Amino acid sequence: MAIPTLDPNAPDFTRRSLNLADPRLGAKALAASDEFFAPKERMLDPQPAVFIPGKYDDHGKWMDGWETRRKRTTGQDWCIVKLARLGTIEGVDIDTSHFTGNFPPAASIEACASRGEFPADDAQWHMLVAPTALQGNQHHYIPVRHPEAFTHVRITLFPDGGVARLRVYGRPAFEEALATSEQGALVDLAAAINGAHVVTANNQHFGLAANMLMPGRGANMGDGWETRRRREPGNDWAIVALARPGVIRKIEVDTAFFKGNYPDRCSLQAAYVTGGTDESLVTQAMFWPVLLPEQPLRMDHQHLYESEIAALGAVTHVRFNIFPDGGVSRLRLWGEPA
């Protein structure tokens, strides 16, 4: 598995928004006009696309993405994707990595809102990205400005070709989280599917901090936040913006699969933040009040805290500290939305 990296050239919406087309959250590639060379599901893989020289299958060169055959008729190829949750869309990434002589010359993206698994025949599709010229072997970050929330997107290729990855960055509708939770139940305010996101982290060498906000327990040691070995004083940290302001009642720190590399201790600070920039939060967070005092951690273990949590009232952000370094699989912050 490739170690994920943050693209320094990626726009801000890729960091502040959730990839609503992530299959780990429940997104699905539902249908495509053609997938002769490579299946549509591969286009949604959360890992970066790879190229394997000399790898072929029954249809030709194996490619890491969705690829249609060479079109010999009129028309365009298309694929419909069901998003993980109803949400507003802030931008997309049409990634043609490793597609050079076989990328589409252009592509467009439309979206609709539908209650069913598949969009109805009379679904109203809205153009989010008009037909846009593409280049081979590169990311195409395209901002979207549309106020409505959607459940499905349709990417159209003009006329055919291959797309390595499709990312649809947006904000999940928090009302959906409330609708699916039991009456009076606490809501995980740090869950990515509910709209939480990692503002920044001081180090993400072996695993992205955003992995901590994904659903379920980690699949392996690569499915978590892991920093490099610290060789200087201090500790590692990550700042998380909650899905909604809320009062945190229960905390879980899960070190699943981290055995020789779990942190020795952890703590949480929190605050209700209004205004400012992500950069300003880094300095502010050092002085936020303590939500959870330092707690010892164990390898490959789910740690639950309730009585240890300080009464800070409603908060919007937390700073998660690990001492001195290491890996954490999941962070859960259950609370009452304010």
From TrEMBL:
<dbReference type="GO" id="GO:0004037">
    <property type="term" value="F:allantoicase activity"/>
</dbReference>
<comment type="similarity">
    <text>Belongs to the allantoicase family.</text>
</comment>
<protein>
    <recommendedName>
        <fullName>Probable allantoicase</fullName>
        <ecNumber>3.5.3.4</ecNumber>
    </recommendedName>
</protein>
<dbReference type="InterPro" id="IPR015908">
    <property type="entry name" value="Allantoicase_dom"/>
</dbReference>
<dbReference type="Pfam" id="PF03561">
    <property type="entry name" value="Allantoicase"/>
</dbReference>
<dbReference type="GO" id="GO:0000256">
    <property type="term" value="P:allantoin catabolic process"/>
</dbReference>
<feature type="domain" description="Allantoicase">
    <location>
        <begin position="26"/>
        <end position="172"/>
    </location>
</feature>
<feature type="domain" description="Allantoicase">
    <location>
        <begin position="195"/>
        <end position="337"/>
    </location>
</feature>
<keyword id="KW-0659">Purine metabolism</keyword>
<dbReference type="GO" id="GO:0006144">
    <property type="term" value="P:purine nucleobase metabolic process"/>
</dbReference>
<comment type="pathway">
    <text>Nitrogen metabolism; (S)-allantoin degradation; (S)-ureidoglycolate from allantoate (aminidohydrolase route): step 1/1.</text>
</comment>
<dbReference type="InterPro" id="IPR005164">
    <property type="entry name" value="Allantoicase"/>
</dbReference>
<dbReference type="InterPro" id="IPR008979">
    <property type="entry name" value="Galactose-bd-like_sf"/>
</dbReference>
<keyword id="KW-0378">Hydrolase</keyword>
